[in-house]
Amino acid sequence: MQSPTEEELEESIKELTEYKNRLEKEVVTISNKLKMPQKKINSIINSHSEINHIKIILSKLNKQKANLASDLIS
Questions:
Q1: DSSP result, 17-38
Q2: Model-level pTM?
Q3: How far is residue 17 from each of residues 47, 51, 59, 74, measured CA to CA in Å?
Q4: Helix axes 49-73, 6-33, angle to 10 degrees
Q5: CB 12 within 8 Å of CB 64
Q6: Which DSSP letter does residue 74 get?
Q7: pLDDT on residue 41
Q8: What one-character DSSP code corresponds to residue 48?
């Protein structure tokens, strides 16, 4: 299997980041309609399994992108 290019990694990172931000915004919007305190909203976002999974994937993609960039410099 061929390694992704830097552009492919950047596009994946961008799309996943946008998706994560949309999920967080939905949680905030719904929580605000329910008049939940900000502390509780933050707690919900921090414990949201899908958001946390996306954060892990983004971290891995960013490391892969950094490794690719360092390989190109070397």
A1: HHHHHHHHHHHHHHHHHTT--H
A2: 0.86
A3: 17, 10, 11, 29
A4: 160
A5: no
A6: -
A7: 96
A8: -
**Token digits of residue 27:** 């949680």
Tens of pLDDT, residue by residue over 48-67, are 999 999 999 999 999 999 98
- Amino acid at site 50: E
Taking the CA atoms of residue 57, residue 18, residue 6 and residue 66 in that order, the dihedral angle to the nearest 10 degrees is -50
Q: Extract the residue ranges of the chain whose pLDDT is less than 50.
A: none
As a whole number of angstroms, the distance between CA 67 and CA 74 comes to 10
Could you give the CA distance from residue 27 to residue 41 in angstroms, rounded to a whole number? 7
The C-alpha atoms of residue 49 and residue 59 are separated, in whole angstroms, by 15
Query: Cα(68)–Cα(9) distance, rounded to whole angstroms?
Result: 10
